[in-house]
UniProtKB/TrEMBL annotation, chain A:
Tagged with keyword Metal-binding: yes
Record keywords: Metal-binding, Zinc, Zinc-finger
InterPro entries per the UniProt record, alphabetical: Znf_RING, Znf_RING/FYVE/PHD, Znf_RING_CS
Residues annotated as transmembrane: none
Protein name: RING-type domain-containing protein
Natural source organism: Ogataea parapolymorpha (strain ATCC 26012 / BCRC 20466 / JCM 22074 / NRRL Y-7560 / DL-1) (Yeast)
PROSITE patterns: ZF_RING_1 (PS00518), ZF_RING_2 (PS50089)
Ranges for domain RING-type: 80-120
Entry-linked PANTHER family: TNF RECEPTOR ASSOCIATED FACTOR (PTHR10131), TNF RECEPTOR-ASSOCIATED FACTOR 4 (PTHR10131:SF94)
Bias (Polar residues): 44-53, 454-466
Automatic annotation (TrEMBL), chain B:
GO biological process: DNA damage tolerance; free ubiquitin chain polymerization; protein polyubiquitination; protein targeting to vacuolar membrane
InterPro entries (UniProt xref): UBC, UBQ-conjugating_enzyme/RWD
PROSITE patterns linked to this entry: UBC_2 (PS50127)
GO molecular function list: ubiquitin conjugating enzyme activity
Name the record gives this protein: Protein involved in error-free postreplication DNA repair
Pfam families xref list: UQ_con
Domain spans labelled UBC core: 5-141
Keywords: Ubl conjugation pathway
GO cellular component labels: fungal-type vacuole membrane; nucleus; ubiquitin conjugating enzyme complex
Organism from which the protein derives: Ogataea parapolymorpha (strain ATCC 26012 / BCRC 20466 / JCM 22074 / NRRL Y-7560 / DL-1) (Yeast)
Keyword Iron in record: no
Automatic annotation (TrEMBL), chain C:
PROSITE patterns, per database record: UBC_1, UBC_2
Alphabetized CDD domains for the sequence: UBCc_UBE2N
Record organism: Ogataea parapolymorpha (strain ATCC 26012 / BCRC 20466 / JCM 22074 / NRRL Y-7560 / DL-1)
Matches recorded under PANTHER family: UBIQUITIN-CONJUGATING ENZYME E2
Name this polypeptide is given: E2 ubiquitin-conjugating enzyme
Amino acid sequence: MDAIAQELDQLELETRGQQEATGRGLLTPQGETSSAWKPDNVPIASSPNSSGYDMTDSLDEAPIDLRTLVYVSIPEHLNCPICQLPFINPYTTICGHTFCRTCILETFKSPLGNKCPLDRIELNYKEDRQETEEKNYNDIFPAPIILSNITDDLQVRCLNASRGCKWIGPRWSIKQHLVNSCDHTRFPCEHILDQGQVCGQLTERRFLGEKCPHELFDCAKCGEKINIVTEEHHLKNECTKNFHKCNGCNLEFPEKTFDSHESYCEKIHVRCPGKQYGCEWRGSREVLSQIHSSECVFVKLSGYFELQEAKMNDLVDENKMLKSQISTILDSITQGKMTNLGYSLQLEEIMDRDRSTDPSRLFDNLQEKDYIQLMMEFEVLKTDLNRLRSLASEFELNKQLVTALANENIQIKDELHNQTAALSSMRQQIQFMLLDRRRLRSKLIDAEAAPQPKESSSSGRFTNKL
Amino acid sequence: MSKIPRNFKLLEELEKGEKGLGAESCSYGLQDLDDITMTHWNGTILGPPNSSHENRIYSLTIECGPEYPEKPPIVRFISKINLPCVDQNTGLVLASKFPTLSSWKRTYSMEILLLELRKEMASGPNRKLPQPPEGETFQFH
Amino acid sequence: MSLPKRIIRETERLVSDPVPGITAVPHEDNLRYFNVTIDGPSGSPYEGGKFKLELFLPDDYPMLAPKVRFLTKIYHPNIDRLGRICLDVLKANWSPALQVRTILLSIQALLSSPNPDDPLANEVAEEWKSNEQNAIKTAREWTERFAQ
């Protein structure tokens, strides 16, 4: 596990050496629309000493990748859920979640598309939205300025920390520090060499001066060829003649072995190991081991003290872990996630389930597409209804007409009946008159004794006709 | 580009083969779907047109060892074929005579390998080589 | 080739503050490639088993989902014979706000609640639907045989 942690540390150091264009004024990433998400994947310089900040461009264009910064402490709540680093140029969605601008725009290009990475709500976004468009605002917009201010104020270490810079300051001032004041920022050496060429080697600011720092000279102690840049390293780690006198035994040792000598020199003055528990004793290591340690009460008690301390540290660690867990849980809840509780369901999904059973909320879940389709169906139904209404009124009219006709029909029938009755009474009258006439004629014939057949046949025809 | 590990590279190749996204003139698949190490594969090559291989289907075996794709797979013809880069006794494709194997790169794949073999069959001098009758196979020992 | 900070931070946390029942350790020569173990959840037929998986973070992670596969044979309707996993958050439902941690938790949850209606291993899913008792028995046997 330790090996991994070390490796990761190493990688972290390396990433500091990388650069990518950044800067809203000083702090916002530039060119972020075109670059891929991997903001840290810029090849690093090959020399292991180079992890730090180098100025190779003109001052104004000096790019600083804020993502490579090392923060003194990171409050989890200020982390972008995507890159998991403090927000850089934060943007907020209509659903209330905040991300780095680069991160959320990159997500829009990923398979997830224009959706909020936390609750998957569809987000409307167009980079170059026209005012004439029906909807001329985006569903993501810059987060409140106070958030940028808080994140810009976070304390960061200098990008040159691995070269020895101890600077710590607010994030907004890192560029100022690197460009104008950090002694460990490297610049190309501008000295002209004998052959007329420019030296050009990247050199930390502290070595730049009137003389070219790469000019070799003999080491004053051993005579080896060194220059200003390598002098410090040479004296401390390489030179065999750079002697240092020990305060305890008065013997001289080369600087490179001095540290190890100090750790075992019998004559050197040390403090009692019980000093952290209150012992004021001070003396040579020899006396300590032979006399003092057997007498000192604090040393005797130190075992107990250490045990107590270890227990206390355990409790502190546990407390810290619990705190961080609580903060993640709170974070998850505020971000609408429940994943850290062992469920992969999102809070919104659970709410959706409740919602779907509540008809009044039905329209909340409707997509615009569905809505348009429903509207169309509604229109069709409306026209159908109108047509039916007009048909119904027509039908009503027809019904009235039919009743009128029926009434008329009854009247006509009555009349016809009357007519028929009148007609039959007239026929009876005619028949009666005819019978009467025949009787009169037969009487007349009897009286005259002369029969007239022709006349009777014609009257018979007439009777038949009736 | 980071290095994709062997198993995930083979899974990608398998998926491409399963979905038939690759070229039509060759195909490949796992011999045994229970083989969690994904070592043994079957391949087929459809003989290139305008050559003595036209309309023939050649079967091969491909063995992707633990060091695939750093090291090339071992490729062996099952169907008999007369080709300079194929050992006429065992059907083994000889790296020494087949540049795709001798200068293998980790970005190559089984599909590239089969397509290159097909190209080899169609290349100038090999195109009209007399071929053994169809259906004969190499003898494994 | 350097590693994005997010991967470094996720790895640090996985190692320093591991999820109970889950370990994830990166390979020394490829820090995007993890050896994972998941303990079978208690109350499931996988209880008592220790399942090995491999996980790889592709170049476009976290824009693309991690790739995960079981290396231990397992009898489960959503895991096929090659160890491939059918899980929505690994495919269409991936979001860059998810993490290796959350994905491994989801896989652990999948072991607790198999979903035979969205199967990857068809025969297993059929068995699960037609004779759940028997399927669970087989899953338990496989756990004893392969996941110790």
